[in-house]
UniProtKB/TrEMBL annotation:
A GO cellular component annotation in the UniProt record: cytoplasm
Name recorded for this polypeptide: Delta(1)-pyrroline-2-carboxylate reductase family protein
Pfam families in the record: OCD_Mu_crystall (PF02423)
NCBIfam families listed in its UniProt record: PRK07340.1 (NF005603)
InterPro entries noted in UniProt: NAD(P)-bd_dom_sf (IPR036291), ODC_Mu_crystall (IPR003462), ODC_N (IPR023401)
Protein origin, superkingdom: Bacteria
Gene3D superfamilies: NAD(P)-binding Rossmann-like Domain, ornithine cyclodeaminase, domain 1
Amino acid sequence: MTQPPHSPSPDSLNAEATAALLPWRALADEIAALLRDDSVLVPARIVMPMAGDASLFAMPACDARVAMTKLITLTPANAGTGRASIQGDVVVFDVATGERRLILDGPTITARRTAAVSLLAAQRLAPTRRGPLLVIGAGTQGLAHLQAFVAGLDVTEVFVASRSQASAEALAQAARDLGVPARAVADADSAAAECPLIVTCTPANAVVLRAAPRADAFIAAVGAFTPRMAELDAGLCRDLARTGQVVVDTTDAVHEAGDLIQAGMDVAALPTLADLERGRWRPGPGPVLFKCCGWGGWDLAAARLALRGAPSQSR
């Protein structure tokens, strides 16, 4: 019996090589293009609980040409151990042939696509795109959002708030390394009064922002992604809905946006990023809260961009 020819092994890229294929502005543009693509299919992600509050995530998605699955673990107990809290891979396939094309670093994809979604939302929705940025949470997502916002917006100064002074100082130094003045702050609510751009990206086990922001503020809240999690005070969420607008990344937020759910808001009635990109909704005046819970489509956008730029694809 004749065996089919063996397909070549796909390129397996480490974190650095994966990041190099996903420049911030290009990734935000790819996410916008994906939202306009009618061929995109994204089933509900599978989140399987494991021992020790850990979870296994399986997130497939495809369009007419590219398919991918992200398979990652989230292990909160790894914090402070030297082991990453998020581990795993994104496997990219060619739809026409079924061949594997790339294996990308899962944590890098997660960090960069999440920050790029926030960047796209800020590019489209922020009343003021220039000025100080407040980053609340100095972990992986804090660094990714810092890099994305500095690359894609007119950030003039950075304030960093974190439970760990050492982590806050390290992220402030990362901002200075990018050429932006930065300092660690002890009180996020006080710093918010100076910042038209705010990102909350904490483990979401406690409220980290309560004060009413500036009238021209844009807040990206990305740390909470289950109904039980919240970074933002419930009253703050309701005030933002009353004085400005609240936008969610996808309709999945109905079941996952803990900040909004705990505030008693009708999440199903809120506009999504796709509504904005497809012209079904336009923002009005006032501050903006963008609530992001995550979606396999964001990973597909990253896979599409990475596949076009991978060296093996040009040979």
